[in-house]
Specification:
The protein contains six helices and four strands; from the N terminus they run ββαααβαααβ. It is mainly α. The strands form two sheets. It has a two-stranded antiparallel ribbon. The mean pLDDT is about 85.
Length: about 190
């Protein structure tokens, strides 16, 4: 019979009385649910309105030169990314400020909290959003996007994977910047 815990056992880390959310089955699946919710509006608004409409107008006008098509595509793509970012902001920050969780987080039973106080507040959620998504806005800047695209891509992967080895709070880089953690809550 053993008097204590087995060797190497570490008690779970609690934040505000709650255990941390598991990285893969909690955070990752919640993110997939949230992306699926935003996918249809983004496809309709961004693809149809900003990509197909300008190209359709050029085709209907029987424009022969390639430059108007290239400019229409690049302009539509850049505008689509900005609209996507605005929709994402209102969902990730606005919806969370109002309801406490995004729909995906609620379904997976997880919540973002501040390290110092339980309610992260709008400012912390904005910082989290900035570090998680706004880095990618560099990609739409002509020439700069081409030069730093792979660096931005590597940052995005590193940001999301960071929680797999971060101790003790399993924070992604955007959580570290915002001083937030993701906890498991009762559904």
């Amino acid at each position: 019979m053993s008097d204590g815990p087995p060797p190497g056992y570490r008690p779970p880390v609690l934040v505000h009385g709650h255990p941390l959310a598991p990285p893969m089955d909690g955070r990752f699946l919640a993110h997939l649910i949230d992306i699926a919710i935003l996918l249809l509006p983004n496809l309709i608004i961004c693809t149809v309105l900003f990509m197909f409409v300008p190209l359709g107008i050029l085709i209907a006008a029987q424009v022969q030169e390639p430059w108007p098509y290239v400019l229409a595509y690049l302009g539509g793509f850049s505008l689509a990314l900005l609209v996507n970012l605005v929709l994402l902001y209102f969902y990730e920050v606005g919806y969370q400020v109002k309801h406490g969780q995004t729909y995906g987080k609620k379904r997976m039973g997880i919540k973002i909290v501040g390290l110092e106080n339980e309610q992260p507040g709008k400012r912390a959620l904005q910082r989290r959003f900035l570090a998680q998504y706004c880095v990618s806005i560099v990609l739409v800047i002509p020439i700069v996007g081409l030069l730093v695209g792979s660096v931005v891509g590597m940052y995005n992967y590193l940001d999301l994977l960071w929680c797999l080895w971060d101790k003790p709070y399993q924070q992604c880089l955007h959580d570290k910047y915002a001083k937030t953690v993701v906890i498991k809550v009762a559904q």
